[in-house]
Design a protein that fits this description.
The complex is a heterodimer.
Chain A (H helix, E strand, L loop, with lengths): L2 E3 L1 H7 L4 H8 L3 H8 L7 H11 L3 H4 E3 L5
Antiparallel strand pairs in A: 1-2
Chain B lengths: L2 H26 L6 H29 L7 H31 L7 H24 L1
Helix pairs in contact in B: 1-2, 3-4
Classes of the chains: A mainly alpha, B mainly alpha.
Chain lengths: 69, 133
């Protein structure tokens, strides 16, 4: 099952650019883009950083495709 | 040691090896090393390094403190080098078999050096591309 996420929506809602997010999380802009497009699943460490960054519960950020949001 | 210090140390080692390699190469080729030749051997790697500094400065100005590599880059490079390993292993084996089938019984070391150089350059270019994906 594919993991999908709401990172793009959350980022835009908070008015954060991909570059700013990359700087804050110490990752490349390409990685931000790949995660947002669901082309790359972040490591547990990065996933936890993302949860802390957006201050949302994990199920709000990541969920399995087909699962009820 | 900090990351920046390691980076500087690596650049210094590469530069030193390039310069020493230049002198060794000329000594093997029995070329008399005069001042202009020595200056060229020393200055060429230093000049070649300048674009790297300009690009790094441009990247810093444009992207701030965004790292050049992260966990995804490491994963991509790992996959790339795994692919390279198989291509080089089976590719060189297949090339040898084809050459043997064609009736080639010996290979000049000069030709081997050139083919290895082409291989190294292609792997390096591929690495740069893979790291930027």
């Amino acid at each position: 099952m594919r993991v999908v996420n709401h990172i793009r929506e959350l980022r835009l809602k908070n008015g954060i650019t991909q570059i700013r997010m990359a700087q804050d999380l110490k990752i490349t802009r390409q990685t931000v883009n790949a995660i947002e497009k669901n082309k790359y699943n972040p490591s547990l460490e990065l996933a936890l950083k993302l949860i802390k960054y957006f201050n949302v519960p994990i199920e709000e950020l990541f969920y399995l495709e087909g699962d009820k949001e | 040691m900090k990351k920046k210090q390691w980076e500087r140390l690596m650049i210094a080692i590469v530069l030193l090896c390039t310069i020493i390699g230049g002198f060794i190469g000329l000594t093997i080729a029995d070329v008399t090393i005069d001042f202009s030749l020595a200056a060229a051997i020393i200055c060429a790697p230093l000049l070649g390094l300048l674009p790297r500094f300009f690009l790094a400065a441009r990247h810093k100005k444009k992207m701030g403190n965004i790292p050049e590599a992260d966990e995804r880059t490491a994963l991509i490079l790992k996959r790339y080098f795994l692919g390279v390993l198989y291509v080089v292993l089976f590719g060189s084996g297949a090339a040898l078999l084809v050459l043997y089938a064609m009736g080639v019984e010996s290979i000049e070391t000069g030709l081997l050096i050139v083919s290895m150089m082409v291989l190294y350059v292609s792997i390096a270019i591929g690495t740069l591309i893979a790291a930027k994906l």
